[in-house]
């Protein structure tokens, strides 16, 4: 077989492989942080790297005395909060599927508060999904009826992933790598969960409900990220690669016959 034909087939295979490689093959990280310095410094989280605090500064801080990764994390102190209070990060994206992840540590105490970890729409309006954690460590899905879906272990880091599907308006909750509920309808509103459409991802929220006098627990968040899921090579790219491989196999068979 002429050498020029071998080169041609090699070029076909190389082109096909390049197309596959060029296709999206890994998760797209939209934002990720372990709250390290830089850019974070010890003090109020509000105003650092695009983070804000609801309803205002006073209960959430970057600290360097306790962390999962590195030397810094963010703590929320219910004793300093007036009702609901906590940090949130705005990452606007039209992606149909978004994964919001964080490591959360809730310290036990004699008077514990309730907590929330959630994904919220633009302007903190419209909950897509998330979890509420009672003072007794019961986990509720943020959806109509707020069903109980498990319990959380205090005094331990817990990885919580919210896999949010804006096309179907449903989400999945993973706790420490295990799905504890799935196909949960978006809450859709800030009270009562009306199921109103949440058009796109905008905010991640970690907050306390310090509605009980004398609360003395504390919550931490570390290794926070917002990403889109891994994609697979496009069918056209796979077909091109397959064509090249089939052609190469045919040439080799012909070469053996010759």
Outline the fold blueprint:
Blueprint (H helix, E strand, L loop, with lengths): L2 H20 L5 E6 L9 E2 L6 E4 L5 E4 L9 E4 L6 E11 L3 E11 L6 E7 L6 E7 L4 E4 L6 E4 L5 E9 L4 E6 L2 E8 L15 E10 L7 E11 L6 H23 L1
Helix pairs in contact: 1-2
Describe this structure in words.
This protein is α+β, with helices and mostly antiparallel strands and 258 residues long. The protein has two domains: 1-25 and 233-258; 26-230, Jelly Rolls, CATH 2.60.120. Helix content is 17%, strand content 42%. The strands form two sheets. Strands 1, 2, 4, 5, 7, 12, 13, 14 and 16 form a nine-stranded antiparallel beta sheet that branches. A seven-stranded antiparallel beta sheet has the order 3-6-15-8-9-10-11, with no helix packed on it. The longest helix has 23 residues, at 235-257.
- How many helices does DSSP assign? 2
Total number of β-strand segments? 16
Compute the CA-based radius of gyration: 24 Å
N-to-C SSE string, H for helix and E for strand:
HEEEEEEEEEEEEEEEEH
* Overall tally of structural domains: 2
State the low-pLDDT regions, or none.
1-7, 12-26, 243-248
What would you call the structural class? alpha+beta
Helix content: 10-25%
The CATH class designation of the largest domain is: Mainly Beta
Q: How would a textbook summarize the main sheet?
A: 9 strands, antiparallel
**Termini separation (Å)?**
8 Å
Summed over residues and divided by their number, the pLDDT gives a mean of 86
Shape: globular
Beta-strand residue percentage:
35-45%
Could you name the CATH topology of the largest domain? Jelly Rolls
**CATH architecture field of the largest domain:** Sandwich
